[in-house]
# Entry
Amino acid sequence: MFDTVAERKDRNVIGQDMTTLNEARAAWDSLRSFRENAARNLRFTYGDQWVDKIRVNDAYVTERAYIESKGKRPQQFNRIAAFVHAIIGQYVQSPTESVCSARARENQSLSDDLTTTIKYAYQRNSLSDVDKNTLRMFAITGVACHRTTFCWDDTEDMSDVSVSDVNYNRIFFDRFGEDVRHTDLSLIGEIHDMSLNDVVSIFGYTPERMKRVREIYGYIHSDGGQTSLRNLDGDKLRNIDFLSSDEPNRARVIEVWKREAKTRYRCYDKLKGEEFHVEVSDIGAVDAVNEERKKQAVDAGASPDSAKLIEYGAPSVDRFWYYRYLSPLGHVLAEGETPYEHRSHPYSLKVFPFANGEVHSAVSLVIDPQKYLNRIMTMQDFVQDSAAKGTLLVPDHSISETMPLDEMRRQWSDPNGVVVYKYNVTGGKPEQVIHHATSSGALEMFNATNKLFDDIGGVSSALQGQSTKSGTPASLYAQQAQNSAILLTDLITAYQSFRESRDRKILRLQLQFYDEPRYLNIVGDASSRSFLFDPEKYKGIQFDLVISSSNATPIARAMQNEFLLRLLEMGQVDAKTILEVGAFPFGDKLLQIIKSNEEEMVQRQMKAQQELQQLGQQTEEQI
# Structure
């Protein structure tokens, strides 16, 4: 039988898997060039833009060192940071949200509940802030990656869906993928740095394993305290190593997800309408279930052929995702087949633009114009420093004993100074030289490069909200901003595709692991609501998910409220309905007051009826 996974029967034994570790190491090493380019893009966005190396006299030195060797200071005019911030601003100003639609017509009424369920995950994981930071790094590096799992939350004392941002320095995947959707990957993973207590808590689930885990990480002598003297400078991630952490008290754990293959039976249960796979060794249990169902049919007076059985054909090779958590020496801390019903790994990955297996981020396209801007500024600074600024020219015959050179310098700089000099018929008198240092064409070159930067990056001054020239029509200014936003549509649409992939996994995990009813509360926005999520109600539902425009903007909410008010004037809806559907700032409070008044009115009516009944009984007794 075909089986790429030699699974150990004794789960208390921690073996080694050097093959998977070497494959993960090769995948991580294959991304070295990408990490170097991403680090350069990040440095040009928020760091030193003069550290590219050039060759000078058969030696390589940084551009900064070369300019400083000339006694000058390189100038930096950072436009890339503003370019990235403009992308984030455009994303925030055009909010979108995930909207679910059930595929079966009879389940359409559940679509709104599924959409609210995703909003609940957004609120719990603060995904609005996470998405902004991920989009920022997506524009800089060209890669976005999130890890979506279902785990225990110590702060909330409950298990729920967890979404975490994965740094580009920690992610690795194989180099065989060519699909822009990255569905053809066969290996993906991440390197973690954990405290020893966390490693023992996660992987030491028996006393024997706990002891073995401590032996594997015996080189970690302390579990607390900070040993590095540097923080918040990015040095930790820039110099990251695959096998060891830069902190002596942190344990390196390598998470690897690999697509494996195994011979299995593909079964279909006609009674439950479910498809599943069965190991070759377990097919006898399926036959036993079928025999039991035939017996039940006979006992019910029906034919055995009428029983709904579990059907299966010949065994075939099944592809599935298999995870391993490895130590730097290849010890398998945990392993198993994917526990998720979506049968995939927990990572959502997007590389953009993914052209012929290469990635060229938005920031990488504007580095050359940025460098040229810096060179123009530095060149102008050179000219300014070398130009004459208030130099005093004094003919030697004009210097006398009554007005020596030092006294002449003092009097010249004094606002009320008087300079006495010897007159000569040939001419010549003290004269100050002031040169207005403006290199020929420097301003024109600077403006042309600035415009070139806007054309390449797709972020004009109108999109950034900068003031325009007087006399510019408002319609033209708005059109310029819209045209500039069109150039960024490709990048933002790619990120929305990434969000769709991630949100599908979020909802699939919620449908899988929300095995008990729970209240989901959405607060803090115009669509605040809460409902009881009943897992039995949504079991087996098939859905489609898309990213659509959100009504979270003030303009969208105003249009929605205006439409509802028109319906109220026409008598098509009542006030209670528009408060439930609309996005009024006082809607929840007013709706609560209306419901409270209705309840009081019902109680008064019931009390009045009881009093009438009692009065009628008393009247009958008197008669």
Residues 525 and 552 are 8 Å apart (CA to CA). The chain has a mean pLDDT of 82. The longest helix spans residues 474-513. DSSP finds 18 helices and 20 strands in the chain.
